[in-house]
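Run: sequence + 2-acetamido-2-deoxy-beta-D-glucopyranose -> complex structure.
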Amino acid sequence: MKNRRKRGGLSGGDVVVSWRRFFRFVSLFVFSFVLFSALFIFLGKIRPVVRSSVNAVLRGSVPAVKVVTIHEAVEFPDQTLIFLKYPPYSRLFTKEDLFCVFSDVNDSSKLFKELPYAVETGDYGRHIVRCSAVPRGNTVSLAVSRWTVDNSNLQVGLTHRWDWLVYDAVIDDDNSTVVFVKGLNLRPGKVADVSRYECVYGWDFTKPKLLLRAQVISAAQEIVRCKTPLSLTVLDGPRKAQSQPVKVSVRIKGSGMLPSVAHPIKRPGRVKDTKTFETCVCTMTRNAANVLREWVMYHAGIGVQRWFIYDNNSDDDIVSEIKNLENRGYNISRHFWPWIKTQEAGFANCVIRAKSDCDWVAFIDVDEFFYIPSGQTLTDVIRNHTTTPSSSGEIGEIRTPCHSFGPSGLSDPPRGGVTAAYTCRMALPERHKSIIRPESLNATLINVVHHFHLKEGFAFADVDKGMMVINHYKYQVWDIFKEKFKRRVATYVADWQNEENVGSKDRAPGLGTRPVEPSDWAERFCEVRDIGLRDWVLDNFRDRKTQRLVWEREARRVEDEVIVQMGSWADKRVGRKRKKQLKAQ
Ligand SMILES: *[C@@H]1O[C@H](CO)[C@@H](O)[C@H](O)[C@H]1NC(C)=O
Ligand SMILES: *[C@@H]1O[C@H](CO)[C@@H](O)[C@H](O)[C@H]1NC(C)=O
Ligand SMILES: *[C@@H]1O[C@H](CO)[C@@H](O)[C@H](O)[C@H]1NC(C)=O
Ligand SMILES: *[C@@H]1O[C@H](CO)[C@@H](O)[C@H](O)[C@H]1NC(C)=O
Ligand SMILES: *[C@@H]1O[C@H](CO)[C@@H](O)[C@H](O)[C@H]1NC(C)=O
Ligand SMILES: *[C@@H]1O[C@H](CO)[C@@H](O)[C@H](O)[C@H]1NC(C)=O
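>> structure
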């Protein structure tokens, strides 16, 4: 009461009190500011900090980030991957935090900076920064743009070549380690002599005394399977955050050890007798953002429950497209897979990943769609082939023939997706794709053109093409076809631009070796009109009210896309501006 009256008055005494209060208030303010700043620095170690003007005050003090180090790098023909090593509880970098810095070997003042293509998160939560390829006579390092202090760049230590490297490793459910290797040059489809190799485990490969050796169980193509040393804690799951996980490499006896960036990962074993999913799909792709929606939604409609996307350096919107599908309830995950000519290895890697959750795993591309004319689900068809015992063994693989569709007279990419648009195909089925049971695979994990070698006692079954086929939208409108065939992915398949092998089935017949549109492209590969899947899709995936297919983007979405595009365009502009500023420095 008294206070209030005093405050309300205008006497001299009141003014004195107010000044004292003002002083107290100011000290409180200063104290809070100091406290807040201290907290800011402290918290900065734990979580990403929102960019603010306080940064300007802190610039130069560089609290937590300096201890982040570059573990190692791998050089590819068209990019450099830089593996970051974070101390426990440190703040993680985003793409916006970093610059790739290239500097002249002889004159370190000659340097240029560039935004990374992306910062990827690998297994174990490890961060991988994607920079351009290192120009000749240069070295690469990273600059932390947010905290930049001169010469505080993160230096790259060991740099490996992509084609002489152990790049991935997984612990299988029998506790053996499956090691993925580039550089062994083993013959396709053949088993190699295991006595020539051994696996090597350790934390520091420069100290041979601290390494554990292990026997090789099988070696074929680019996969080596080893007995995991029992003393290794990898079997008990990922180690605690404080300690570095162990690495594994392969030694060629009498020749030497390959460099390695691979930490063997223990996937959670099977806990229940029944697996979570009956049917899953693995695919390897690049820049599939535009087609993913239809492909995932359609296959969900016929019974697929889980999708594993092995992403080979996409630079489109695939990350947000996958996020979007996830938010709609589809169980889909993306796995960064930058390794060159490793489609077979990627499939084997995916099988082990899917093993504990999936009864069956299908391997198809994003332009391939299972078509079941009877309207049964994929799981029904699989059951149909596995319930009757076969004389040659239990069924471990189901092979589905593929029909190759042509441009069907179209010249522009269809808005409603491929299934409802392409209706003309070649008469004869071409090769086939497999659906496999992970337990039935031979330990070698050999697979050639989509077929895995099975264990003894297992057999494959061919699906009758009246029961199920794959509609392969192989020869789409020219603009799309052109991109696809510029990038052939399999290890043991020739490049289409290569003059050798011109008669190969992987080529578009009559196209030759140059990517120039033939005048009659739209009419090619059209021998049989086939509207089966189109009609089925129109009956089952069309919204009654809007008459649009469920995956078709609404008109509103087009606006969204424009905004998104403008956003990324603005992003690029900011990037360019920053580049310019840096160059000017
Ligand atoms: C760096 O210096 C060495 C020796 O002086 C020379 O051979 C080399 O070509 C130089 N490299 C570049 C990129 O200038
Ligand atoms: C694999 O290792 C784990 C943990 O050491 C152990 O509990 C399990 O029995 C092993 N499994 C096999 C098949 O050896
Ligand atoms: C998706 O599947 C994985 C197993 O493959 C499971 O661990 C995860 O919880 C699932 N996610 C959702 C959202 O259901
Ligand atoms: C990934 O793409 C690169 C080109 O960027 C290609 O050389 C490589 O073979 C591809 N890898 C796979 C596994 O498809
Ligand atoms: C498999 O499908 C065919 C054709 O639909 C049917 O005749 C047959 O009985 C089925 N077999 C089993 C084991 O379900
Ligand atoms: C795996 O394949 C190899 C070679 O093809 C064969 O020798 C071996 O017996 C197979 N393993 C099993 C468990 O069937």
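>> summary
Residues 442 and 456 are 8 Å apart (CA to CA). The pocket of 2-acetamido-2-deoxy-beta-D-glucopyranose (ligand 2) is lined by residues 174-175, 235-236 (CB under 6 Å).
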